[in-house]
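User: Okay, second chain of the day. Same drill as before: sequence in, structure tokens out.
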Amino acid sequence: MTEQNEKRRITVDDLYRITDIEDPRVSPDGRWIAYVQATIDRLENGYARNIWLAPTGGGEPVQVTRSGKDSQPRWSPDGETLAFVSARDKKPQVYLLPVAAPGGEPRSLTNMPNGASSPAWSPDGKQIAFLSSTNAEERAKEDSGEQEEPPADPLEAKHRKERKEHDETERFDPRPVTRIPYREGTDYRDDRYAQVYVVPVAENLPEDDAHPRRLTSIDADHGEPEWMPDGQHILTTRSLHPERDEPWRWSTLVRISVADGESELLASEGFASYDPLPSPDGAWIAFVRLPHERMSDSLPRLAVIPSQGGKPRDLTRTFDRSPVSFRWARDSRALIFSADSQGDCEIYHVSPEGGAVEKLVAGRMEVQALDTGPGGGVAFVATTPLSPPELFRQTLGAEEPVQLTQANAAFLGEVIVQETREMRFTGPGGEELQGWIILPAGYEEGSKYPLAFNIHGGPHVMWGPSARTMWHEWQLHAAEGYVVFYANPRGADGYGEAFRFALHADWGEVAFDDLMAGVDALLEEGFVDETRMAVTGGSYGGYMTAWMVGHTDRFKAAVTQRGVYNLVSFYGTSDIPMFIPDEYDTEPWEDPQKLWEHSPLAYAHHVKTPLLIIHSENDFRVPIEQAEQLFAFIRRSTDTPVKLIRFPRDGHELSRSGEPKHRARRLTEMVAWFDQYCQPEKTGESA
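Assistant: Same drill. Structure tokens below.
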């Protein structure tokens, strides 16, 4: 009996078995890597996050927090303390944990009324900068020095808390709306904005000295703070035009004086700028910038400016790929970054002086996060085609990385993981396109199998064989007896800016032709039954799923998820309305007919493929009115089987970080819909 025969097929419930690794941070001496280990708490229908330390020299990782609500580990400059964020007492706050000796207990450093996040140590280790959200009234109260008297007893504390919660609810009943977005994620925005604070680390200080000091006071969200090496300034970001809709489009770099809060805008004219990071020697500021012109089609660029000011230098413009995350080498001689390319996300390096981009860590992988260590090494979290995320480290000069964690080893020892095979095919315009195939578990040569065709979202994202958010789902489809196929049509990231722009103002037809060319090339392989093909996708992938079944009846079943179906109404309800004129060069009132002709809803009356529509009720990126319209149009204009499943409480991230029971139910409903029409023998129903 072979090893694979001894293992079992992956199931929906294996969603609860997979562990994620997040946010690796190398200690100053390079001996340890702090990271977050995330698991699903099935009983609580939520997620548990704890901080672990992995020794870089090998050995078992050590768990150092256990509340299940801990994240964002940050090393003190001397390596003896970890700052981290914990919601163990409901509101997230910054905590300090001594790690030089085992058994240390964390202490709370902040007690902000609205919580705290994004801790950053000053270079001398005496202060921590962080973010906390406040409104104008709360900032005025802070500035006045007014302190609330402590409650006399627990009953009074309880009453105060209830009064504050009641008053907060009343403030937004009814809810005034004056700008866009007014709702994001799964919540409505309030009138609070993230501000930058600093707080001393030392214990037993006089109350006035121990209190956090706010450095900013503007109705605009600030980005994560980063200290300049001189300890006198902090870098962050905020919008140049916070009063405008979608203010993130005018994000700029800001340098703040720690002494008095005076700020200097380091504007990059014609660009939105994000994620400033000073070089360890203080000579440079690295950041990512995105041109305002053709913003959604353009590639973000990794850039630097001299710390004393000067013209930005783009480091990745000719590289023609999107940087995903980046860090400085500890010696300041290079920037280390990950980038999507040809289905993989690998690690590269480039000099701040410019020049060629060179690959540093190569392999079939998707790098999700990275950090650099002394001596030129790099630690990173990556998924591979055969494994969910794990922590790796590659030292300078090594040919391949070393895996430091085995968080998913026990799970992988039990289940069959099907290999992924790359497939190159020719698009209708002669372009070489890239896709991947996973054969079904128990595959037998000469047999034909149903197809689960998956379409990515974005539209300007890239899928590859190591995609973390799809790893379990694709393996589940294969375990359920389907050939899995996915591809990157024109418009996807990872193939250069011209490839991305090829989809401009034509979401449907361009990708339809490319994707169907992939399906036809797959059929030539001989193992797919073309009478039993299913198609699915989410967000833009949902758009394309609905577009495809409105333009062909070759698919036996379809599942469209969180999709855009009416470009005109999407503009009026989404948190990113300006995405539409970015992509289509028109506002809805200027050329509504153009947008309607490019909307899948316009072709809903042609749908003959049984369609399952999945959408979340708190999706504020693609609001559920999109699904409601598609359901009503198909229901009223055809006799095609159509079903809408509404998931309460969740948002656009349902499949990735939604309530675990909803994520599992979504997969169950999808496979059942596929099976009903493509494998009726499994369900006992006739197609």
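Residues 660-678 form the longest helix (19 residues).

User: Thanks, on to the next one.
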